[in-house]
Design a protein that fits this description.
The protein is an alpha+beta fold. 43% of the residues lie in helices and 12% in strands.
Length: 1460
């Protein structure tokens, strides 16, 4: 392969392969067909991801996690039932301790009772109740009491249907009975008093994970006589939250293993890390909730437990993120810490060591992590034992061969060790990494951007100079000759332009004018083509400093010219800068990196760039290797012949390159495997992509070759590894286990950069590190034996873990066996003191090696491929320096080894790859017959191996593209497009109008966020919903507890519509038997806890029971002795059988403090108008008194923005009929205050979530305008995430509302669907259509529900979201129409000119005939039928589908089809 062939082949790979193709494989190895087994996963750098790639791991994991999810559901359900009082017919309270300390002889209480939320009536399904509080259970009243000593027994009339929420005791009455109060007691239940009793309550209880444990501790019995103490052993909000968040974590684990089972290992890995972070946050929130709890044990014990487990999750995440190999250690650590936390919690709660009598706690969680960690550890141990056993045979063979070498050439081995030591001293401090070229110092192009800004301020040119980009045109190749540019010569001569680029251009730069003619000469040079952007080119030329501009023919010319062969590196620099890069930043980067003098910068990040460098530097590197082998008797491995029993080596023969097995460029599969096992996918640490091995018969030859390398000024050694030592320290049974890190193979590995090689400099690959292994033939024969390679592959896989565990083994041995690991007594340095050298690269360095694995751990903690140190230079058995041996031992460089005039010396003047004058071409330049590729073929001057003509200009461009690829700049467009797709790069949208973005881009919202109108709109929406959330929070805090309306004496329930649809004068009675209002306890007078903490306080019974209650016409009155507030009302349905039709379907509750007079009852009779129930006002006069409406069967809550809490405006009473239970005398309660969870979820959380997206999105979009800000999520992602969260939150609230019987559930469901549509269409190209759909959906759903609920389309709900959507669409459409009108005005003149030209053209019959003929040609070749609006990749005809293949062949001639 010649030089031009190599450049062309590289250009083909860059053109045909997508950008970062190899890097995508590196990030996802299975895409290359690499499968992951358990052994590979356990010993790789990324065990988490690779374990998820093992198929059976996902299947087993899904089963285990499903079991945990089921257990989590059951435990959450059990936690909700724990602490309740079980349903029994008999209950017994037994006093265990009195306040005065005497043995209890009486129960110590006046009585006890059972409580339920809402008094336990479940017949009011479908009626809005609001938030309930505990009241006396109706089915627990009316029982019989018995007292036997210290026990009091309650026998109910019948066994209750369900459990009770809690219970209460009432203290003794009478003065002086405080000492007899019971302070420690227990409550038991049984269905048979003669049978066993079960403990269902206690004076004190603690929460222990899922269980509620009754400890019978001291209760806070009040000293007040006749007071009520409510005893609640159920789990509070913080406890239930902690159990629910555990279930959420189990679901996250289920998602992780589910993704792994479906082959999404990368998603599973990210999900695992996200689960740990989510666990940290949710448990920290749980700790905060425990601190806010009113229970002392929650604040002192459970809060600390929650924060400890939260910190455990954070530490575990950090450890796994830092070093994934610690996965099983982290899992074991989690199991230990969880067990310790449970033991501490058990000791603090019960004062005794951990036991499982009171519950398992987190035992299943701990066992799960213990099982996983121990399983992984045992698997590692099993594999390690197998590997160590398999490597013993090859290790013995290596040791035996090395013993023979040492016996023959001990002195030479010592000289090699001394030489290695000196070379290592000279390479100390160098980075053994693949590094990018960087500017050595600030060059002439540093101030380009500053000069550009200065030029913008003073320039009056009419040409457009865009921010950071140059819009320059490039003529197609081959068009710039003859006809294309004929007659385009300007004043300075044909193809000559001054620096000014036209009129007034000034004096021309030296050498900037090239002579030329109208035609294209055969040598490939092209004459200039006039560029329309003359002033832009002038500006560009003035920006570049004079030293660079003077040597660049493309920036000193006012014409667009094609590169001329032989113009040098500046030619392709300038051409690519103007015609391809088109950005000043990239131009400056290209200029700085491509300078001959450079420094090393950032590490190489992509595998594509690394392989481009290796491919381009391979020939230069082999030139060096072949020269060294020829000079020092080196050999190369021969291809095995049929019947050969052992590996053979031979000297390099130029005409017989096909018989050698050379290293070449490392296979992609091997590189990816090595990155996965050894280097944590860090490309810069892969130093053997371009590699070669030289085999020597004697140590002396190897030493002299190494000395020549070290003295060659054109080679820079960045790293040296040697395992050649005289001592057998790596034999099995070593004193500190160091023998485990050695495979036994002895070699010297040299890692060099071709810093002085001209060919590497031209291609900008002189910074690439190549690997050269120097191996003895005796060692090489053993290394390439089949059993050795198999054992070696297994050993390399495990070596990294062995190196990591070995220090712990040594420390343990020193601790328990009292045996040091310091310097040995025989004078030799122990393995712990030596640098770990690498012998693993030797086998992998040969062509065809497909087993790559990890290295050891160096002193800095990084993984290396090293394992055995070189010989100590002061070894006692080595001959001292001096004499003849010492004279030969000194490092001799290339200049000292080869005499002047030597026939082989020209080979050391390392020439560029593919140079036709090269005396010793590399094997890549030879064909199968040993002849130079392309020799004797046509186009010898500029031809390739197949005889194709490659002009000098094209060769220069190919060289430039290769340099760009080697410098990592070849995929800059793909990088930018990726940034555009992610929303990080919005420069392309700055030139578009705000309205046009929504009609012309694929991501309208991403682009629109860079415009101030959209930012203003989103800020307005965000502020609106933020104020709405704050207002709803204030309203809830002020009105959700305590009184709702001011105190009133008289309350009246008026029935205006009955179940049988009677209304007006058809209603003769209210249809109910009891009516009254609820106090702060939200209980009826019979079920209210008088004197209970948190109940009605000390309010007297007279305030709770109406002084008058009874029907009056269609109304039912309740009059109280004094004005009293209300939180709701209660009623009982009619008591007579058959009165179901008279039950109220719609009613109004009125309140008044005025005295009224019923008289003969005529004022209380129902009116005769039809549909009166639809026309209820907020105030009315009834029987001489003014009444205010305070209730209705259904209501909603105002969610607008209000500055102060107002009960009259917060409740919106609806005209929506309800259906009461058909049971007679059934209790139905209506509580006005909302249920906290539902209200918060729907009206507060959703408002804050919706507001957070636009506000943070605008802030992030503003931050993204600053250079270098790329770590933040995109603005659209934040907006979309907030909308998704709000949709989920709103739908959850809708489900809760449905369970509570809320009639407005359909509205909430439609709202959640609307928010979901907006979230999905946030950045869709059809955003405008989706906004219209959202507007229509919101308007139709809200108006329809308003009509159903309130018989009007305007209230109680307002389609705010729909109005916002309609407003955005209207603004955009108006702005778009304005922009289109302005555009049409500009196009009218051009259109009229085009019409005149077309009319003139069509006036000639010949022109018309030509146009018609052109149309026929288009139809004939099918251009009007085939879609040619896409760019397509090349594809082999054999790979096409049958229909496409048949169509393809039909368009070819028979000869072409036959040839194909």
């Amino acid at each position: 392969m010649g030089r031009r062939d190599k450049l062309a082949l590289h250009a083909q790979s860059v053109t045909l392969l997508p950008a970062l193709a190899l890097d995508r494989i590196r990030k996802d190895p299975p895409s290359l067909g690499l499968t992951s087994g358990l052994s590979h996963a356990l010993f790789s750098c990324m065990p988490v991801e690779n374990l998820f790639r093992v198929a059976w791991v996902g299947r087993i994991g899904i089963c285990v996690i499903l079991l945990f999810v089921v257990l989590g559901l059951l435990s959450t359900e059990q936690a909700g039932r724990e602490g309740r009082v079980g349903a029994f017919k008999h209950y017994r309270l037994t006093s265990l301790e009195q306040r005065d300390g005497l043995p209890p002889s009486t129960p110590g209480v006046a009585k006890f009772g059972l409580l339920r939320y809402g008094e336990g009536d479940t017949a009011n399904t479908g009626v809005q109740q609001g938030g309930l509080k505990p009241c006396k259970a109706g089915d627990a009243e009316g029982g019989t009491w018995e007292v036997h000593g210290a026990a009091m027994t309650l026998t109910l009339r019948e066994r209750p249907a369900g459990d009770f929420a809690m219970w209460f005791i009432e203290t003794l009455g009478g003065e002086g009975t405080e000492g007899g109060d019971s302070v420690r007691f227990k409550l038991e239940g049984a269905d048979d008093p003669e049978g066993a009793w079960s403990v269902v309550g206690s004076s004190a209880s603690v929460q222990y994970y899922v269980k509620t444990v009754h400890t019978h501790g001291v209760a806070p019995t009040p000293l007040e006589r006749g007071a009520v103490l409510r005893i609640d052993a159920t789990k509070g909000f913080a406890q239930m939250y902690y159990h629910v968040q555990a279930l959420l974590i189990y679901l996250c684990w289920l998602f992780v293993v589910g993704a792994a089972m479906f082959g999404k290992a990368l998603v599973a890995r990210r999900g695992l890390f996200t689960t740990f972070k989510l666990q940290f946050m949710t448990r920290a929130i749980g700790g905060i909730l425990f601190l806010q709890s009113g229970v002392e044990e929650d604040r002192q014990i459970h809060a600390l437990r929650a924060f400890s487990t939260s910190a455990l999750s954070l530490v575990s995440f950090v450890l796994i993120q830092w070093r994934e190999e610690l996965l099983e250690v982290v899992f074991f650590w989690i199991g230990v810490c969880v067990t310790c936390i449970q033991a501490w919690t058990h000791w603090r709660l019960f004062g005794e060591p951990l036991s499982f009598r009171k519950g398992l706690g987190s035992l299943s969680y701990s066992v799960f992590f213990f099982f996983i960690s121990l399983t992984m550890m045992l698997a590692r141990v099993f594999v390690l034992r197998k590997v160590i056993k398999n490597t013993r045979k090859s290790k013995r063979q290596f040791d035996a061969a090395w013993e023979g070498v040492v016996a023959r050439e001990r002195n030479e081995v010592c000289r090699v060790a001394r030489l290695v030591g000196r070379i290592k001293e000279s390479t100390a401090g160098k980075k053994a990494l693949q590094l990018n070229r960087s500017a050595k110092e600030q060059g002439p192009g540093v101030g380009i951007r500053r000069r550009l800004r200065s030029l913008r301020r003073v320039s009056t040119a009419t040409d457009t100079l865009q921010s950071g980009s140059l819009r320059l045109e490039m003529p197609p190749w081959g068009v710039a000759g003859e006809d294309a540019v004929k007659g385009e010569a300007r004043e300075g001569g044909v193809g000559c332009a001054s620096d000014g680029g036209g009129a007034g251009g000034g004096e021309a730069e030296p050498g900037s004018c090239r002579a030329g003619t109208g035609g294209g000469p055969p040598d490939g040079s092209m004459i200039g083509v006039t560029d329309s952007s003359t002033s832009l080119r002038t500006a560009m030329s003035s920006l570049l400093p004079n030293p660079w501009r003077s040597s660049n023919p493309f920036l000193t010319s006012g014409r667009r010219v094609l590169p001329v062969a032989g113009a040098g590196i500046e030619s392709w620099e300038g051409y690519l800068a103007q015609n391809l890069l088109q950005r000043l930043g990239l131009i400056e980067t290209l200029r700085s990196r491509s300078q001959p003098e450079f420094s090393l910068g950032q590490p190489v990040e992509t595998l594509d760039q690394l392989y481009s460098q290796a491919f381009l530097v391979q020939d230069d590197f082999f030139e060096v290797v072949a020269s060294l082998a020829r000079l020092f008797g080196g050999k190369f491995r021969l291809r095995p012949t049929e019947g050969a029993r052992r590996v053979e080596f031979g000297e390099w023969e130029e005409g017989e390159s096909g018989k050698f097995l050379l290293g070449g460029v490392k296979r992609v599969k091997s590189s990816i495997t090595k990155l996965d096992r050894a280097y944590n996918r860090d490309v810069s640490r892969l130093l053997d992509v371009c590699r070669e091995t030289i085999y020597f018969d004697t140590v002396d030859q190897l030493r002299r070759c190494l000395a020549a390398i070290s003295e060659n000024p054109r080679l820079e050694i960045v790293r040296l590894k040697s395992t050649m030592e005289a001592e057998q320290d790596t034999r099995e049974g070593g004193y500190d286990g160091g023998w485990l890190l050695a495979s036994g193979m002895r070699f010297v590995g040299v890692y060099v950069r071709l810093r002085g090689v001209e060919g590497a400099k031209r291609l900008c690959v002189d910074s690439h590190v190549c690997e050269l292994l120097l191996v003895l033939t005796d060692v090489g024969r053993i290394a390439h034996a089949p059993h050795t390679r198999e054992a070696y592959c297994d050993w390399r896989m495990c070596k990294r873990v062995i190196a990591f565990l070995l220090p712990f083994y040594r420390s343990a041995r020193q601790l328990f066996c009292n045996q040091g690991v310091g310097r040995r007594t025989d004078g030799a340095a122990g393995p712990a003191e030596r640098e770990r050298g690498g012998n693993g690269e030797a086998l992998a360095g040969e062509k065809g090696g497909n087993c790559e694995a990890s290295g050891g751990i160096d002193e800095s903690g990084r993984s290396t491929a090293s394992n055995v140190s070189p010989l100590n230079s002061s070894h006692s058995e080595c001959q001292p320096e001096g004499g003849a041996a010492a004279a030969e031992d000194g490092p001799r460089g290339v200049e000292s080894v080869f005499e002047a005039g030597s026939s082989v010396r020209p080979t050391l003047q390392i020439v560029s790859v593919g140079n036709e004058n090269s005396a010793h071409p590399s094997p890549a330049n030879l064909n199968s017959s040993g002849q130079r590729a392309g020799a004797g073929l046509p186009g010898a001057r500029g031809g390739g191996s197949v005889g194709s003509y490659v002009s000098g200009e094209m060769e220069t461009l190919l060289e430039g593209i290769s340099c760009m690829s080697a410098l990592g700049l070849c995929d800059f467009l793909d990088h930018r497009w990726e940034e555009v797709q992610r929303g990080h790069d919005q420069r392309s949208s700055t030139s578009s109008s705000f309205s046009g973005i929504f009609f012309s881009t694929q991501r309208p919202m991403t682009s629109a966020l860079q415009k101030w109108p959209m930012r203003v709109i989103l800020i307005g929406i965000g502020v609106f919903y933020l104020l709405r959330g704050v207002s709803n929070t204030l309203q809830y805090a002020s009105l959700s507890d305590g009184e709702v309306f001011p105190p009133y004496r008289h309350y009246r329930l008026q029935t205006v519509l009955t179940r049988d649809r009677s209304e007006g004068n058809g209603i003769t009675s209210p249809g109910i038997s009891v009516f009254g209002v609820l106090d702060d306890s939200r209980c009826t007078p019979e079920a209210s806890l008088m004197g209970a903490a948190g109940g009605a306080g000390n309010r007297s019974a007279e305030l709770l029971v109406p002084s008058f209650s009874g029907p009056a016409g269609s109304s039912f009155l309740a009059t109280y002795p004094y004005p009293r507030p209300m939180t709701g009302w209660y009623l009982r349905t009619g008591s007579q059988q058959g009165s179901e039709g008279q039950d109220p379907a719609y009613f109004t509750v009125w309140a008044s403090n005025d005295d009224f007079e019923i008289g003969d009852g005529s004022c209380a009779a129902a009116a005769g108008e039809q549909d009166r129930w639809l026309d209820v006002a907020d105030e009315e006069s009834w029987c001489g008194a003014d009444w205010k409406r305070v209730g209705a069967p259904a209501w909603s809550f105002a969610t607008g923005i209000r500055l102060e809490a107002n009960a009259d405006s917060w409740w919106r009473f609806l005209r929506y009929p309800v259906e009461l239970t058909s049971e007679r005398a059934a209790l139905v309660k209506f509580v006005l205050q909302p249920v906290g969870g539902t209200y918060f979820t729907r009206n507060i959380f959703c408002a804050f979530l919706i507001s957070s997206g636009p506000i943070t999105g605008v802030f992030v979009s503003w931050l993204s305008t600053f250079r270098g800000v790329r770590t933040l999520p995109t603005a659209v992602l934040l907006v979309r995430a907030s909308l998704f969260a709000a949709a989920i939150c709103y739908f959850s609230a809708a489900c809760l509302s449905h369970l509570e019987g809320d009639p407005m559930t359909p509205v909430h469901v439609c709202k959640s669907i609307l928010i979901l549509i907006l979230a999905l269409a946030t950045d869709s190209r059809w955003l405008m259509i989706w906004l219209c759909v959202a507007f229509a959906l919101d308007m139709v759903s809200v108006c329809s529900m308003n009509w159903v609920l309130n018989r009007t389309i305007f209230s109680p709900y307002v389609p705010v979201a729909g109005y916002f959507c309609a407003g955005i669409v209207a603004i955009i459409c108006v702005m778009r129409a304005k922009a289109l009108l302005e555009t049409m005005k500009l196009l009218k003149q051009d259109q009229s000119q085009y019409d005149r030209l077309w009319k003139t053209l069509c006036s000639n019959e010949d022109n018309v005939a030509g146009i018609e003929h052109l149309g026929k040609v288009v139809r004939m070749i099918g251009l009007d039928e085939i879609d040619y609006c896409r760019q397509h990749n090349r594809m082999l005809a054999s790979k096409l589908t049958p229909p496409l293949r048949a169509k393809f062949l039909s368009q070819m001639t028979p000869d072409q089809a036959k040839q194909l």
